[in-house]
Amino acid sequence: MQICQECIRRYGGIPKGFEEGIQCHICNGVFQKVDQLIDLFLNETKEYEFSTFLIGSSFPKKQIELDSSILSEQFPKGRGLKHHFNSLIGSRIEKLTGKTVEFKVPELVFKFNLEDFSTELEIKPIYVAGRYLKLKRGIPQSPWIHPGANESLSVSEYIGIPITKSFKGKDYNFFASGREDVDVLMLGNGRPFYVEVLKPVKRSSDLMEIENKISNFSGGAIEVRELHIANSEEIEKMKEELHDKLYEVSIELESPIENLESKLENIKNLEILQRTPNRVLKSRSDLVRKKMVYSIEVVDYKYTQAKIRIKASSGTYIKEFIHGDNGRTTPSLSSILGVNIKIDYLNVLEVN
Ligand SMILES: [Zn+2]
Fold first, then answer.
1. Distance, CA 20 to ligand 1 centroid (Å)?
2. Fewest beta carbons less than 10 Å away: which of 67, 71, 274, 285?
3. Are 2-123 and 126-240 in the same CATH fold?
4. What is the C-alpha separation between 304 and 146, in angstroms, rounded?
5. What is the Å distance from ligand 1's center to 15 Cα?
6. pLDDT tens string 236-261
7. Cα 268 from Cα 64, distance rounded (Å)
8. Do 49 and 202 touch, CB atoms closer than 8 A?
9. Active-site residue set
């Protein structure tokens, strides 16, 4: 039985019963095909921009078994077939292209199946993060499930589509730290978000230009700031982060309240219990959640009309805290003041 030079080199010797030759019984001649395999890699990845990659491979089971037994019985310090193949191809490609093998977070993974000589190319997503402002009402954060003729696109589409186009991705996922209702503006420093661009052809782009594109595409309704490419650690952190928020609400009281300012401004670190609001019961389970209202500031008050600012913990249903949702949120502003309250508008001013 013959063994090739490359297999002799990785073992550190010739196994018993073998002689040097080209018809290698162990690797099945794969090391003679390295140039062709590298050409396959170069050809199939040429469309994509990347600077790091990883090579993977799978061999027929019989071949691996023979290799393992020779290694363990005769060359315990030798290098396994698969390991040697991956690192040989990897380092040859490094030299040819100037790109780097990366084990932890490669931008691209290329797998050779040496049973049927098929290949598999996996392009890792790219994450584009920033903060968004919503300057017009009537825009939902997620796409409408049954969009009507007059419905606008959603925040996720206004942001996700231009970003995905710029990186020439196949598709995208949108994630934001919390959400505002359709009729609520997102102002101030904006809400953190990221877009996961799937199978991007490009991995860099002019981010300032993308910010402008989003603004134009949404007709000025959505503005994006601090756009940057995020790494996976930042994304993981964002998924877990809880943000306090500052809201501005214009309310109409059923009747005027004496000393409204001091009554509201005395509210500090108030614990409230919120049962899942009636309006979202269809999509969320019916639970009681404990939330915090940290402080309330009265910006403006005349007769029954007031503009107030409320600082509350992550996930507080602010509208329900104001009107009480028929007793499902307790206490509420309405129960504290002893009047019914209508909401004219609600804006998010800060996401911390
Ligand atoms: Zn061989």
1. 10
2. 285
3. no
4. 38
5. 12
6. 888 888 889 999 999 999 999 999 99
7. 68
8. yes
9. 181
